[in-house]
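Technical note accompanying the year-one report. For the benefit of new consortium partners, we illustrate the data format agreed upon in the data management plan: each record pairs a sequence with a structure-token string. No post-processing was applied to the example shown here.
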Amino acid sequence: MICMSLVKNLALASRIPLHIKKTQIKELMSMYEALIITPVKDSLNTTIETIQSIHQSEGKFLYCIYNDFSTQETTLKLQQIQLQHNFELINLAAITDTPSPNYRLVLLMAQKKALELNIPLIIVESDVEVKATTFRELIRRSKELDKCGMVAAITINREGEINFPYLNFKSSKTDIIKTKHSLSFCCTLLTTELLTRYNFKTLSTEKHWYDVSISRKSVQLGLNNYLLTSVGVLHKPHSSRPWKQLKYNNPIKYYFQKLIKRLDRI
């Protein structure tokens, strides 16, 4: 995996003649196959596992981590390993005063960057581990499948069994499922076609998560969403949001958090 700092490259381009600048930007555009992002809010151990798996991926990608007001410990660790694992670290605390979660802001920034480079956007959550060929498969399928807006890798546990959030596809016998169900952002590619046609500035500021909204909009735009059951990624559900485990062991407290405190708005 190759990842260079887009900011530094564009800064360099701003100090050279226009005709050379255009050439350099064109070279940057052809350098990467996709923009990969991981929003991070602590959960340091699973985040590092995610980063390591992405670093071992086949292909040339620009990888950005959006640090959404993590603790000082997490932030410091990310700073320490960013060169070793070739990712660009964006600390949202330097950009906004809005408390976490800032998923809308992350999506806006990622969309802008992907469109500037004319490459698809791949979102990988911080409780997911990808395989070496995961991104290559997502990119290949996104180009082959009819009118593709989104394509996702199915989530599995350590035993290789389909797990949350795709349990409703457990009995499927096909490798590729065209679906109108929402695709999770566990490990999902958004095509340049979708990024071009759907301005994320229109995403509601009242929500926290946007996989449902973007999945629905993709279909409304006449695009198709696909789930690849033959491409699995390890998912450790809710590791990045431990309070959601309350849904299973203390549902009353969970729904108090969700309904009264208005957490986890989708």
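Partners are asked to follow this layout when depositing records. The first strand starts at residue 34 and ends at 40.
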